[in-house]
Amino acid sequence: MNNRAALREPSDRKRTRAISRDRKPFRAFSRSVAEHVLFLGEYIRNPAAVGAFAPSSPKLARAMIEGCDLQNAETVVELGPGTGAFTGPILDRIGPKTTFFALELSSDYVRRLRTRFPDLVLYNDSAEHIAAYLGRHGRRSVDYIISGLPWASIRQEVQDRILHQLFRVLKPGGVFTTFGYLHTRPAPNAIHFGRLTRNHFASVKVTSLVWLNVPPALVYRCTKAA
What DSSP string describes the chain? Predict the structure, then answer.
C-alpha cells in the first residue's frame, strides 16, 4: 500500500504543478479585469482626474521606460501610477541601491497598489509635493520622473505648479517621461502642457504612436540641460 502511494506521489505533484501553471493565466486575467473595472469606476466618478477609461497597456509601459537607465539610477519617482501599469516594469528594472517611490492622489488606487505591490513606497499625495517626499528619503534631486498624469485634464495653473516643481528637482541631464493621448492633442490644456515642456527642457522628443493602447498614445521624453 505504501509503495503504491509512493508511486502515485510524483504524478500527484506533477498534477499539482500543472494545475498551478494553469491558474497563472487565469489569475493574470482576473487581475486585468479587476484593474479595468477599477479604472472605469474612477473614470465615471472623476473623468477629468483620470483622463482615460482603460489602464495603460504593456506596450505603452515599455515605451515609457525605454532608454531609461533605471538599473544605475540613484533616484526614480513615479507620478500617478494608477493601477500600476508602469510600476511593475519600473520595479523590475531599478537597481538594488535605487531610491524609488510613487505619488498617487486617488485613495482607491493607493489601496489597490499597496495590495499589488506590498514593497512599494507609496504616498497618497499630489505631484506638487515631490520635493518634500524626496527630502524624506534624504534626496534633493531625481534622475528619472515617470508620469502617468492626465495632463490634458489638468488645469493649466496646476500644470504650471507641477512642472515648476518637477524641473526644480530633476538633475541636470535628468529625464522626465510622460505620455498623452492622440485624441487629446488639440485640447487647450494639452497644448499648454506641450508649450510648458518646450520652455523648460533642453530636449523634448516624441515617440511614434503607440497604437496598442486604449486610447492610442504618444510618449514624451523631456531632458533637462546638462
Answer: -HHHHHHHHHHHHHHHHHHHHHHHHHHHHHHHHHHHHHHHHHHHH-HHHH--SSPPPHHHHHHHHTT--GGG-SEEEEE--TTTTTHHHHHHHS-TT-EEEEE---HHHHHHHHHH-TT--EE-S-GGGHHHHHHHTT-S-EEEEEE---GGGS-HHHHHHHHHHHHHHEEEEEEEEEEEEGGGTTSHHHHHHHHHHHHH-SEEEEPPPB-SSSS-EEEEEEE---
The model's pTM is: 0.78
Please state whether 124 falls in left (phi above 0), alpha (psi between -120 and 50) or beta: beta
* CA dihedral for 222, 224, 225, 226, sign (positive or negative): negative
Beta bridge partners of 147: 79
pLDDT tens-digit map of 171-220: 999 999 999 999 999 999 999 999 999 999 999 999 999 999 999 999 99
Per residue in 26-65, pLDDT (tens digit) is 444 444 444 444 544 444 455 444 444 468 899 999 999 9
CA distances to 10, 209, 223 from 58, rounded to whole Å, are 37, 14, 23
Residue 163: which residues within 8 A CB-CB, separation 6 or more? 193, 196, 197, 200
Q: Are 143 and 135 in contact (CB under 8 A)?
A: no
What letter represents residue 190's amino acid? A
Distance between CA atoms of residues 112 and 25, nearest Å? 20
Is 189:159 a contact under the CB 8 Å cutoff?
yes
